[in-house]
Amino acid sequence: MVLALKLTKIGNSVGSVFPKEVMARLHVEQGDTLYLTEAPGGFRVTPYEPEFEEQMEAARRVMKKRRNVLRELAK
Predict the structure, then answer these.
(1) What is the distance between the alpha carbons of residues 71 and 9, in angstroms, rounded to a whole number?
(2) What are the DSSP E strand ranges found in 4-75?
(3) Residue 48: per-residue pLDDT
(4) Residues 6+ apart with CB under 8 A from 1
(5) For the chain, give me the number of helices (H) and strands (E)?
């Protein structure tokens, strides 16, 4: 799916209007935050914070490595 987004002046800034279909596919609504990240060949817009995802991946590695310790602490 390729969509052209027009940039418009909003006060002293510039913004873009996302069609309803795009917002539905991203599972976002007005007021939500989107993140623009560099990707191979361009940029990617996502509702997920990349830094948080890195932190969660580190947590998953610790939980996998220290599974027995976490089970004991949960008792």
Answers:
(1) 54
(2) 7-10, 13-16, 35-39, 42-46
(3) 80
(4) none
(5) 3, 4
The answer to whether the predicted template modeling score (pTM) of the entire model surpasses 0.85 is no
Q: Is the pLDDT of residue 53 over 80?
A: no
Asked if residues 47 and 31 have their Cβ atoms less than 8 Å apart, the reply is no
Which of 18, 44, 46, 45 lies closest to 30 in space, CA to CA? 18
DSSP string, 9-27: EETTEEEEPPPHHHHHHHT
pLDDT in tens, 14-48: 999 899 999 999 999 999 999 888 889 998 888 88
- What is the C-alpha separation between 52 and 60, in angstroms, rounded? 12
Query: Residues 40-50, buried b or exposed e (16+ Cβ, 10 A)?
Result: eeeeeeeeeee
